[in-house]
Design brief:
The complex is a heterodimer.
Chain A: E1 2-9, H1 18-29, E2 34-39, E3 42-45, H2 49-55, E4 62-69, H3 72-84
Antiparallel strand pairs in A: 1-4, 2-3, 2-4
Chain B: E1 2-5, E2 7-10, E3 13-20, H1 38-67, H2 69-72, H3 74-82, H4 85-97, H5 102-119, H6 123-144, E4 158-162, H7 167-170, E5 178-183, H8 191-199, E6 203-205, H9 210-213, E7 219-223, E8 228-231, H10 235-252, E9 263-264, E10 270-277, H11 283-289, E11 294-298, H12 312-326, E12 331-334, H13 361-367, H14 369-382, E13 388-392, H15 398-417, E14 427-432, H16 435-439, H17 441-445, E15 450-453, H18 455-463, H19 481-496, E16 500-503, H20 511-520, E17 524-527, H21 532-540, H22 544-554, H23 560-575, H24 579-583
Parallel strand pairs in B: 3-4, 4-5, 5-6, 10-11, 10-17, 11-12, 12-13, 13-14, 14-15, 15-16, 16-17
Antiparallel strand pairs in B: 1-8, 2-6, 3-7, 7-8, 9-10
Helix pairs in contact in B: 1-3, 1-6, 3-6, 4-5, 5-6, 12-14, 14-15, 20-21, 20-22, 20-23
The chains are: A alpha+beta, B alpha/beta.
Chain lengths: 88, 585
């Protein structure tokens, strides 16, 4: 079982609100690995839309992304890319 | 009797009984369950979630078909709530550990998350709370085996009052039984407004306190043209509005003769009567009204009410869909026409003393070339349909026009390089709404393909009147000789330079002035869709020679009052028995 964690700068124009949060959760649910996001000491399930929304992640903030599981490497790189990319 | 003022979202008047929508209160039983009932309660939870999921998927498909895929997307967030692990585990834990019945456990968990989201004090999340509440109402309805609220023929036609009416709420409404929409939130571009306009039902939105002041069974008057609501009106008001309503109904109904799109005067002068729109969804109204294409497509609405900027693809899709739908006619796309404060955060844009004279429209766009070019590329790509024209608002002199055109050239090069098609010969127009542009129209005409006169601003700027200021609003006079001289000179200079000239301000849709403008030589009249049929009837009922004659006489009248009185008399004489119907409604 692979385990990866790192800080990620959220560049998504919305932060992780509304639709981007939904897309993030959908993306996370594609993988078997556990996904967590931590911000300001609060760590939540990355596969839960409600949990992600309640973190209130703004553009420009740094979150810690944890991924653990058989497809961790792939999951981590896709999720990191999503957070770091500016979307419309 | 209470009067409420909101945003006029869809014109017309209706009077009727109120049904409060989406406000049903559930009485949620709280019980302690026995240990052996735990698995049954969890089973009920799963069952209700699965049923709700099916219900939403079906809605999503239906909305996708009716309103397009983009509208259906919002349900993805709804579906995610239903399968949210954190939420579901929280509910199950309450059932298992605290031995609560599923209805209570469910509503407690939802409340917990809703409160957490509301604490973040963020407008966007507040909207998501509405989503979550929408979903949770569906689940509770299943758990409590309550039917969805229905409007049926037995209750007659009703006015729907709601906090908000998202597509998930409006899709199953029996449209034929609805007299009007009234909501707390929303603006001219919110879903409710668009639906109402497409159905031709009056709507007032953004009232903020509607649901607090209006109750089930109240009688209300909805004035969708003025954005006013009267709750439990007096008999006198009902009579007054019933009369107003029948006048309105007569006014907007196109007569058979005005259905054909092309229109010309009795002596054969053809002019274009086109429509002003804000959103692709309004195109059916344009077609229905018999307008010859879109003379003003206001693009800024796409930029409002959101935190991000629409990207090139999103803009392209919107422009393309309008271009395709108005074929074989033209669409004139106006580039962004609002202040910089609508796009950028406070520190970057200090609040302005006189925003109308400030950093807005083309001034803002030229200062933010990347943002502007994104829009220009999207417009150019849509122009591959060959029926797209572009125009720039608030041009005050030749320099600005040249700079904007240079950016168009840059965009063309970029598109060529990227192998994306566009119309090489796209028509470029200048909006004439600043007096300095009007006075230098001869110079501008040599470097663009058409003019569109924006009278609302032109009048404000040339008469130095802020229309929104009640103390001076009386000075706002379209018939002021100064305004008429400016307009006449713009039209003459355009024609001297062999370009055509249109108008997209309110003046073009006012019958008496439309007649005068015809005589002054205006080529195109663009107006809100409901004004199109009347204007076409007017044009078809007069001769160009008559209009020219009247315009010539008007040019020597000294005051706005004289002008209006003279026009009234002349148009009445010319139209005869049709005057009442065409002009006075």
């Amino acid at each position: 079982m692979e385990k990866i964690e790192d800080n990620v700068l959220v560049n998504n124009v919305h932060g992780l609100h509304a639709r981007p949060a939904a897309v993030f959760v959908q993306l996370a649910n594609k993988f078997d690995s556990w996904v967590f996001l931590e911000k300001d000491g609060e760590k939540v399930d990355g596969k839960s839309i409600i949990a992600i929304l309640s973190l209130g992640v703004q553009t420009g903030s740094v979150v810690r992304l944890f991924v653990e599981g058989i497809d961790a490497a792939e999951a981590f790189s896709e999720l990191k890319k999503f957070l770091e990319t500016e979307h419309d | 009797m209470i009067k409420l003022k909101g945003i006029a979202a869809s014109g017309g008047i209706s009077i009727g009984k109120v049904v409060c929508w989406g406000q049903e209160e559930f009485i949620i039983p709280k019980r302690k369950i026995a240990h052996e009932d735990i698995s049954r309660e969890i089973y009920r939870l799963e069952e209700s979630l699965i049923d709700t999921r099916k219900e939403i998927s079906a809605l999503q498909k239906k909305i996708g078909h009716e309103f397009g895929f983009d509208h259906a997307k919002i349900f993805e967030a709804h579906l995610l709530v239903l399968e949210d692990r954190v939420l579901i585990e929280d509910i199950i834990q309450q059932i298992k550990d605290k031995k609560f019945n599923v209805e209570h456990a469910f509503s407690q968990s939802i409340r917990k998350y809703v409160n957490a989201l509301l604490k973040l004090n963020d407008d966007y999340l507040r909207e998501r709370v509405l989503d979550i509440e929408d979903v949770s109402r569906r689940v509770l309805r299943k758990l409590l085996q309550q039917e969805e609220m229905k409007i049926d023929n037995a209750g007659g036609k009703v006015v729907i009052v709601a906090h908000d009416l998202p597509p998930s709420q409006t899709i199953n409404l029996p449209k034929e039984n609805i007299l009007g929409f009234v909501t707390d939130i929303g603006g001219r571009t919110s879903h409710t407004a668009i639906i109402a306009r497409s159905l031709g039902i009056p709507a007032v939105v953004g009232l903020e306190v509607a649901t607090r002041n209006i109750h089930y069974g109240d009688t209300v008057i909805v004035d969708g043209s003025l954005g006013e609501i009267i709750v439990n009106p007096t008999d006198k008001q009902i009579k007054e509005y019933t009369e107003k309503k029948s006048r309105h109904a007569r006014g907007v109904k196109p007569s058979l003769s005005s259905r054909a799109v092309k229109v010309s005067t009795k002596d054969g002068r053809e002019v274009v009567i086109s429509a002003n729109v804000e959103l692709p969804e309004e195109i059916p109204l344009v077609v229905q009204a018999g307008a010859e294409g879109v003379g003003l497509y206001r693009t800024e609405y796409m930029f409002l009410g959101r935190r991000d900027l629409p990207g090139e693809e999103e803009q392209y899709r919107a422009y393309l869909s309008v271009a395709k739908k108005v074929k074989p006619h033209q669409v004139i796309i106006r580039t962004i026409d609002i202040g910089g404060d609508k796009f950028l955060s406070r520190p970057e844009v200090p609040s302005e003393m006189s925003p109308f004279l400030g950093w807005r429209a083309i001034r803002f766009c030229l200062a933010k070339p990347e943002l502007f070019k994104t829009q220009l590329r999207a417009i150019l790509r849509a122009s591959a349909e060959k029926n797209v024209k572009v125009m720039f608002p608030m041009i005050s002199g030749l320099e600005e026009l040249r700079q904007a055109k240079a950016l168009i050239e840059e965009c063309k090069k970029e598109l060529k390089k990227a192998n994306k098609p566009y119309d090489e010969k796209i028509s470029i127009g200048t909006m004439i709404e600043v007096p300095s542009a009007a006075l230098t129209a001869d110079l501008l005409a040599k470097e663009c393909d058409f003019f569109s006169i924006g009278t609302n601003d032109l009048i404000q700027y040339s008469l130095a009147v802020d229309r929104a200021n009640e103390k001076v609003a009386y000075l706002y006079e379209p018939g002021h000789p100064a305004v008429l001289r400016l307009i006449q000179s713009i039209i003459s200079k355009a024609h001297d330079n062999k370009i055509w000239v249109g108008m997209c301000g309110e003046m073009a849709g006012e019958p008496l002035f439309a007649f005068l403008l015809l005589g002054m030589g205006l080529d195109e009249f663009s107006m809100p869709p409901p004004y199109v049929p009347k204007t076409k009837e007017l044009i078809a009922g007069v001769t160009y020679a008559q209009a020219q004659e009247v315009a010539k006489k008007v040019a020597s009248l000294p005051t706005a009052k004289d002008v209006e009185q003279f026009l009234y008399g002349e148009v009445k004489r010319i139209l005869g028995s049709n005057f009442e119907r065409i002009v006075m409604t």
